[in-house]
Design a protein that fits this description.
The protein has eight helices and four strands. By secondary structure, the protein is of the alpha/beta class.
Length: 181
């Protein structure tokens, strides 16, 4: 028999309320729909995923992204905590649970270079009554490289999807596992 794996994160009331407030900042942006959508913006590094998402899907959509959650969690912190990863998972769970329960539109960004990445999201979201739309963003290698360098040098308040997509996909996997979807 396989041993069950789990982790425990102890939160006091103040910590829980802080995490819930962060989650609410993400959920609040989503629009409730009778037939909600999940938009998957995919494409290679530097292709323009974030530009398209911010331009076309900033208003009316809950943005679920491990990197954005981490940045929001740590924006006023002077030092990082060993609890940050656990806090991010809790916030991600709060965001996805509330967004789906309230039937809010959702948008995510992934590279999308492996079919498994879509397989871990599309069937579950379809079962939850979501219409799935995928926007693949492409750019030539020179343009993508220039965009990526500019984002790294100038910043932009984002973490590359290359580093965050596994965490983002894990938010969905944990939710579907918890809900038996």
């Amino acid at each position: 028999m396989e041993e069950e794996k789990y982790s425990v994160i102890k939160l006091n009331g103040e910590e829980y309320l802080r995490l819930a407030k962060i989650a609410d900042e993400f959920v609040r942006k989503g629009k409730v729909e009778e037939n909600p959508k999940i938009v998957i913006v995919s494409g290679g590094t530097g292709s323009g995923k974030t530009t398209i998402r911010k331009k076309d899907f900033d208003d009316g959509y809950v943005f679920i992204d491990a990197g954005a959650i981490y940045l929001k969690l740590t924006e006023n912190e002077t030092k990082k905590s060993d609890k940050d990863a656990g806090y991010c998972r809790i916030i991600g769970d709060m965001i996805i649970t509330t967004a789906i329960e309230q039937k809010k539109n959702i948008v995510i960004e992934i590279i999308g270079d492996k079919i498994e990445q879509f397989d871990s999201i599309i069937p579950g979201m379809t079962k939850k009554g979501y219409k799935v739309e995928n926007f693949f963003v492409a750019a030539g290698p020179v343009q993508a490289f220039d965009r990526h360098l500019k984002q790294q040098m100038v910043g932009g308040g984002d973490i590359s999807t290359y580093f965050t997509q596994d965490g983002t996909i894990q938010i969905f996997a944990d939710y579907f596992d918890k809900k038996g979807v």
